[in-house]
Write a structure and sequence with these properties.
Length: 218
């Protein structure tokens, strides 16, 4: 999953209002951020195979450190602890658990779309494979994003028209990126793909910090 993960960010922002949406954007993609860095370092591997799945050219055959049950639990706990410690926020336990859940949500939301490449234990890999169908993938990703957004709007009540407009433009951009990503799957090399992914996650997180800028944050 790609932009759908941000649905979890929006929904979680509706619950954990003291944390900037930007940090939640980073948290829900943290596993993919580490994955992209590990791809660049040659630690995790993929093949770009045109036509591999209808909505994805990525043959993600080796990513046991980021996209496995134990790997994702490890990163979730680590990021939760670090965030709780460095944020200086009170109720560290709650904040830590909250961020840990945000990070772990990535693994959960990857399950519907990935083919069987998410390692649970031993040789057991799971994934419901909706990437086999471009339309279903687009609808699932968009639905999760918009559902999270509507929860966010209900619970955070954006103050100004500009704030609201900025938010809708941002979500429209995410939906367009979602379309391009699914209907024009990448044909670049794994390293270029990893760099593109890192760039996208960075830009989206900056946007999220900006639209949430007048709220209290870490
Ligand atoms: Zn992922």
């Amino acid at each position: 999953m790609f932009v759908g993960h941000y649905g979890a960010s929006f929904a979680l922002k509706g619950i954990g209002k003291r944390i900037s949406l930007g940090w939640l954007f980073v948290a829900v993609q943290f596993l993919d951020i580490v994955w992209a860095i590990f791809v660049l370092l040659g630690i995790e591997k993929l093949r770009i195979t045109p036509g591999f799945l209808e909505a994805s050219n990525l043959d993600l055959y080796y990513m046991p450190f980021t996209h496995s049950l134990f790997g994702s639990l490890f990163w979730s706990v680590l990021v939760g602890i670090l965030f709780a410690y460095f944020s200086g926020m009170t109720s560290k336990k709650k904040i830590g658990l909250f961020i840990a859940f945000a990070v772990f949500s990535h693994f959960l939301f990857d399950i519907p779309v990935h083919s069987k490449d998410l390692l649970v234990f031993g040789n057991l890999k799971i994934g419901l494979g909706f990437w086999n169908n471009a339309l279903y993938t687009y609808l699932i990703e968009s639905f999760v994003l918009v559902a999270g957004l509507s929860w966010y709007l209900k619970s955070t009540n954006p103050k100004s028209i500009i704030e609201k407009c900025g938010l809708f433009v941002f979500v429209a951009i995410l939906l367009i990126v979602n379309y391009i990503n699914i209907y024009f799957p990448s044909t670049v090399s794994p390293n270029i793909f990893a760099l593109e992914a890192l760039f996208a996650y960075f830009v989206f997180a900056v946007f999220a910090f900006m639209i949430d800028k007048d709220k209290e944050r870490f």
